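Researcher: Next entry in the queue.
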Amino acid sequence: MTLILGIESSCDETAAAVVENGRHVVSNVVASQTELHKRYGGVFPEMASRAHIRAITPVVREAMTQARADWEDIDAIAAVYGPGLAGSLLVGLNAAKAIAYARDIPLVGINHLEAHIYANWLVPPGETEVSWPPPPFPLLCLVVSGGHTDLVLVEEHHQYRRLGSTIDDAAGEAFDKIARLLGLGYPGGPAIQRVAEQGDPEAFAFPRALQVGPYDFSFSGLKTAVLRKVQALRRQAGEDVGRRGVKLAEAGVDAESDLPIADLAASFQAAVVDALVSKTVAAVEDHDAVQLLVAGGVAANTRLRSELQHQVTVPVRFPPIRYCTDNAAMVAAAGHFRYLDGRRDHAHLDADPSLHLDHV
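Model: Structure for this entry, 360 residues:
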């Protein structure tokens, strides 16, 4: 049996968790900074790193307390060293290095994207290892989050081949920016999904950008299309008010916001999901994957889940919702398999904000 302490601080969540055998979550503590960054419509890096400094010690202590574990019980400390925000990464990584040195515990550096993939190994509450067996290889993983959108072929543990990625914005980043444009707040993914439930996904024909490469994605053109539609609707609303003192219903303008927010959100979400699903379906079929894993914060999107399950011809696995966004349980899960593979890191390990998945 292994017991791994995971530490995550790559962006705006300070997290620590204890995981047994890479599959069973014994404790999982997350200190969120959502309220701190909400006023900016996104993560403010300097404030994020300061918040990590304040939170890291109590978060680690709480994770150990909830696990009822002593330091002698911990086989290794797994810490994310990239990719992510440099200042944020350094806080969690340096804390892990200090604990590892002081307690003479092995240190295992973990790629943040690899950790998201290994969230799919965590046994959900109410399930067992029999009902939730480990994913089989070869498998395809769609990693879709605020900073990354990648299609990765996983042929065995730690054998990755990135088939495609976004050539500009990540899907989660696009969600955040469009949510800010529509006045829906931060984080954008949950806000757009909630409003889109009341809208028509076919109200606006936004582009899918399917021609950028067989497995690559692009969302900058979609963002521009939504922006131009919003500007056009607002101009139309202003002209209508100036001409007759009323907003014309045929302009599709909501009386309170001057915009058909729900239809815009639903059409935007549909465009993102369609692009993700079409490329993923093609990659699964072209590479004979026996299962599809979905990872990252956008994996919590209900429309994406539904469309993938409907269109993909092999079994599809999603992490439990709580393990889609940044957390340390997924880091500890990845750390278990790296630890068994013999990986050990030392004090020279440094944060790498641009770390790629195939550089692990």
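Model: The first helix runs from residue 34 to 38.
Researcher: Noted, moving on.
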